[in-house]
Amino acid sequence: MPKAATEPTRASQRRRAKAEAVAEIGGIADSSQWRASRIPEDQMINRTRALAEYRLKPEHVSDLTSTPVENYRVGGNGPEITMHLYRERDIERRAWERRGGPEAFDAYIEK
């Protein structure tokens, strides 16, 4: 049986809770007000490390431009794979967008 139109969906409840959490920890919604990145312009990060360090999911970075590194061997002697490198500033920016800004992201990481 479908829910009544007046009942909020789980997704809308999650969005509202996230917005309240961002407001509570002082996230700034306007990205033009965010501090500048402290990461060097040319700094690169591989996909696995980016997802782990910035707590993102593959779908969060799928639209970012990556540079493939062919014939990379894990540990120097494993099977050849293609490693994808991203500009770390792009990854950082995506994490900030997901969490409500640099301060909100830092607070999220410290939890």
Average pLDDT across residues?
83
SSE-based structural type: alpha+beta
Read across the widest sheet, the strand sequence of neighbours is 1-3-2
Instruction: Determine the fraction of residues in helical runs and give it as a percent range.
Output: 40-55%
Number of strands: 3
* End-to-end CA span: 39 Å
Q: What would you call the shape?
A: globular
Quaternary: single chain
Radius of gyration: 18 Å
- Proportion of strand residues: 15-25%
**SSE series:** HEHHEEHH
Largest sheet: 3 strands, antiparallel
Number of helices: 5
Low-pLDDT stretches: none
Q: Which keywords apply here?
A:
single chain; 111 residues; alpha+beta; three-stranded antiparallel beta sheet; 42% helix; 17% strand
Structure description:
The protein is built from five helices and three strands. With 111 residues, the chain is α+β, with helices and mostly antiparallel strands. A three-stranded antiparallel β-sheet has the order 1-3-2. Strand 2 and strand 3 (80-87) form a beta hairpin. Helix 4 packs across helix 5. It is globular, with a radius of gyration of 18 Å. The model has no long low-confidence stretch (mean pLDDT 83).
